[in-house]
Amino acid sequence: MIKNSHNIKIKKPQKMHYLPKKPLFSTKEIIFRSAGRAKVFHISSKMQIFALLFVFVIAIWSAYSYHMYHKSGKLLSKLDRTRSAYADLMSDFVAVHKNINSMFSLISKEDSSDELDLSRYMQQTQVMEDKIKKITDENDWLQDEDINLRTAILERDRALSERNLLLSKIKQLEASIQSLESSEMEILNKVEKISETEALKIKEALSAINKTLKRQNKYFNPDAGGKRNNTGGKFEPAPMLENKDLSKKMQDVFLMIDDLSYYREVMQSVPIGKPVWKYYVSSPFGHRADPFNKKSAIHKGVDLSANKGTVVKTMAKGKVSQAKWGSGYGNYIEIDHGNGFKTKYAHLNKMYVKKGDFLEKGQEIGEVGTTGRATGPHLHYEVIYNGAHVDPMAFITALK
Prior knowledge:
By secondary structure, this protein is α+β, with helices and mostly antiparallel strands.
């Protein structure tokens, strides 16, 4: 009891008593009455949880089935389009595969006469790759959905495998071609160096003989009256190689070889070289004391002393214009080489050729002797250019 200022008694409130809360899945009782009797069924907490989970699973399965029922139509439609696309892709691949097989059969036979057009196969491969990428992009669902599309996937994997094999073979072929191009470049460099060296040697020889010719107010121009520009015909452009450096080098080397071939042909008619293999100069070209009367005389050639019977060769091709006995010369041969050049070989012991014979460079024409006005076995050798006698030693030593 509590008293206040007015002496009124106030009762203290009593505490409320609450029943304890039962858990959500506490045991439940179900009572059934029948024929005046009651039956009680107890449902445990575990049974309630199991029943709830069962209902939840049934609900999820029903929702999933409903979703897949509506989506299956789209999946089947995409599957048909995929199979059709892969069928087209495999047709393209078969065509490319046949071309590749034929191409590598040619390579295995090492048939260098047939040119391989790699760009055509690369284009076909690119088309296949684009198709595969397009199909893969449009059908990403194939990777995640639990649907049996084994046939389409196998076809795609096969196409990818074959595509990769094709690309590998093409890369191997490209590597082989690059190696061949490197070898070709190396060979062309060597050919260029050899051709350049030989052409320089010929030009130096021509320069040496022109120094002698200038003393007689003469000059030999290898391009004058030659056949360098005597060509013609329909213009047919040569195919260019994809490797521009190799193509440029090939054109330069071919031009140099053509130039060298022309100079070689010209030099066939220029008497450069020694007509006897072993000799010594017993009398030079120009003024000298006559060996018989010791008076001053003009010597129109050089005397090359050698053993009697030593073989004499012509140093340029030409036609025999004289082959007879001459006063002072004894047995002598005169050869017209063209381009204004003539050579004369005197005091021969024997003559192997006759007037009118056509000779090749290096051909044997006779033997060293002592016929005519000679003090001993030697070859009297003259070089005549456009009617003027010039020093033969410039021609004999030009290629040294």
